[in-house]
Design a protein that fits this description.
Layout: E1 2-7, E2 10-13, E3 18-26, E4 34-39, E5 46-51, E6 57-59, E7 67-71, E8 76-81, E9 90-97, E10 102-104, E11 108-113
Parallel strand pairs: 2-11
Antiparallel strand pairs: 1-3, 3-8, 4-5, 4-9, 5-6, 7-8, 9-10, 9-11
């Protein structure tokens, strides 16, 4: 069983920065695709950024140029969030894509004040 724990959320002012981290525990042998998703109040969960095994990345249009996803090792990924906007507010979830199923963390709240 794989468990994901997110950290680094909190309150930031518009224009500020936060760095989220996601660490997986359990039977982790090799890197797998991992991603960050967010869910704003009253909205559906959406992809923010994703990193492939190869290291290639893709981002939501709304965060391109401001957010950077990176992989530290097979278990840990980070999301550097700069130039934060109030619309970035939401619960940020980490996902790890395994061969037969996806694993999700419980989320970390990011609140950006104007």
């Amino acid at each position: 069983q794989v468990q994901l724990v997110e950290s680094g959320g909190g309150l930031a002012q518009a224009g500020g920065s936060l760095r989220l981290s996601c660490t997986a525990s359990g039977m982790i042998i090799s890197p797998r695709p991992m991603g960050w998703y967010r869910q704003a109040p009253g909205k559906e969960r959406e992809l923010v950024a994703r990193i492939e095994i190869s290291g290639s990345t893709n981002y939501a249009d709304s965060v391109k140029g401001r957010f950077t996803i990176s992989r530290e090792n097979a278990k840990t990924v980070h999301l550097q969030m700069n130039s934060l906007k109030p619309e970035d507010t939401g619960v940020y979830y980490c996902k790890r894509e395994a061969y037969t199923m996806d694993y999700w963390g419980k989320g970390t709240l990011v609140t950006v004040s104007s």
